[in-house]
Every structure is written in C-alpha cells, then in structure tokens.
Amino acid sequence: MQITVTPDVFKLAQVFTISRGSRTEAKVLTVKVEDDGHVGWGECVPYARYGETLESVTAEIESVTGPVSRQGLYTLPAGAARNALDCALWDLECKKAGKRAWELAGLPAPKPEITAYTLSLAEPAEMQAQAAKNAHRPLLKIKLGTPDDMARLEAVRAGAPKSTIIVDANEGWSAEVYADLAPHLVRLGVALVEQPLPTGEDEALIGMERPVPVCADESAHDCSTLANLKGKYDVVNIKLDKTGGLTEALKLREAALAEGYKVMVGCMVGSSLAMAPATLVAQGAMVTDLDGPLLLAEDRDQPLIFDTAGVHPPSAALWG
Known about the structure:
Blueprint: E1 2-18, E2 21-35, E3 38-44, H1 54-62, H2 80-97, H3 101-105, E4 117-119, H4 124-133, E5 139-143, H5 149-159, E6 164-168, H6 175-187, E7 190-194, E8 214-216, E9 235-238, H7 240-243, H8 246-258, E10 262-265, H9 272-275, H10 278-281, E11 287-288, E12 306-307, E13 310-311
Parallel strand pairs: 4-5, 5-6, 6-7, 7-8, 8-9, 9-10, 10-11
Antiparallel strand pairs: 1-2, 2-3, 12-13
Helix pairs in contact: 1-2, 4-5
Binding site for Mg(2+): 168, 194, 217
Domain Mandelate racemase/muconate lactonizing enzyme C-terminal: 124-215
InterPro entries: DgoD-like (IPR034593), Dipeptide_epimerase (IPR034603), Enolase-like_C_sf (IPR036849), Enolase-like_N (IPR029017), Enolase_C-like (IPR029065), Mandelate_racemase_C (IPR013342), Mandelate_racemase_N_dom (IPR013341)
C-alpha cells in the first residue's frame, strides 16, 4: 500500500471572512492511497484553530506506513490527517469491491440535501447586498461574532426576507451578549445558533434559556467529546475534519441522535472531494452545511452537483 499526500490550492470566488480573519484561497491536502492496482482519494483541510498546519498534518499522514485499515487509523488523533486517510481508504474499498460507499456502510442510497450557503462577514450594507443576491436560496448562514452583529443580522434579514437563517458566532460572544441577542434572534426568525461561546466558557450555557437551538461546533469533535455537551447544546455539528473521517462521523451521528441531539453536518472550506463523504452523514440532518465548493472559483474535475434540490451525492468518478 502506497500513501501519497499533496498540497493543493483552490482560489475562492471572493474574499471569505469570519471573526478570526479573512482568506482568498482554500489550502487543502489531497491523499492518494494505492493498493493492488486500485486508487482511493481523500481530502482534508488543516485548521489553525485546532493547532494544525499543512506541514504538521502532512507529517502525520506520512507517519503512516505499510498496509493500514480504517480501524488501524485510530492510532492517530481525531483531526484532518486521519480524515483524509480514512476517506481515501473508504474510496479504495469501494474501488476494490465495485460498490458505493453507502452500500459498504449499510446505508440507504443517499439523496440530495438542501445545504446552507454562507455569507462572508462584512459591513451591514455589504451583507445585505450579499443576502439579496442569494435570496433565492432557502437556507443562508451568517458569520457573526462582532460587536456590530445586530446591524448585520437585521441587514441580512432585510436582504433575504424569505430565507431561513442560521447564525455562526465562531466562539465570538460572551454569555451576556448571547442572552441579550437571543430575543432578537427569535424576532428575526433565526433557526439555529452555532457555538455562541468559546469552548472553555460554554459551561455558562447550562441552565440558560435557549429559545433558538444552540449547536456545538468547536466544542464537538468525535464521540469522546459528546459527554461534555450535556445541558449546553441542542445540536451537534459533525465535520469530518474534526471527527477524523467518515468512520467516526457515522459513529458520532448515531451516538448523538441516540442521546437526543439533533445533527448538523458542516465543513471547512474545501473542494467537492472533501464534501463527498459528508453527504452520507448529512442524510436526514436538521441542517446540512456543505457549501464549500460554492465558495470556490475552481473545483475538482468531477465536482458535486448543486441545484434547487440541494447538494447531490458524489459520482463514483469523484469519490466512493
């Protein structure tokens, strides 16, 4: 078995800004696993918030040698490196078996899922213009986490009066700010709030009234982090780059649903190859947020299809 890791860069369609900073391109790692004449592909997005760099994740991937199984990858921590390898091994297994990934996973054939479209953080007038341009989309996601969030939220609602809105604060609020904003979120028809408080401060959510469902993002990684969400969150955001791959993501979905949480399936900003495995996890999710390719100016040769039905499952030529 031969494992190859390659850095790739995809230009964004426009500058993308969240409360932590801005970017003009998506830097990803592409993993190719070759065995017995078959090739499997995976992609990951190293994320600085979790102490990952292109170099550190590359080193993690290159530390894996010889024949390896998906279960054998659990020697690596949950994160980007394990994700790319795990997804590449799923693809390899599909190629060897001549079956699709959902067949190997024992799942029904996936269908399209409506996905959120993320509006970049900007001044209120610009965000209203972004919202108006995308008002035909049924689900918009707003990046917030600043002192001027109410003006931005009002602007987006004015620009897209019929779209469902979800909000991602990216750990940018305090408990006091969230409590103050909550009634306005209800008034403006916000359907979900992602990670309002920093991970280390989210104990404040215990016992706090949550009129809008609160979703754990940075506080939720793999199954081992689920116990710490109790009493704080209503929804768990599953991202393959956090879980360490599709294998753990499917386990986390099952465990979260069993404990009464709803599920959101999200992504880092990556290509269609990164989103493809996540479409399996997104089936029936409360919220699907797999819009990474929609934010790109360029994509893989066999990209996912996005249309009015949502994001479609991948073709076998792309993955799985």
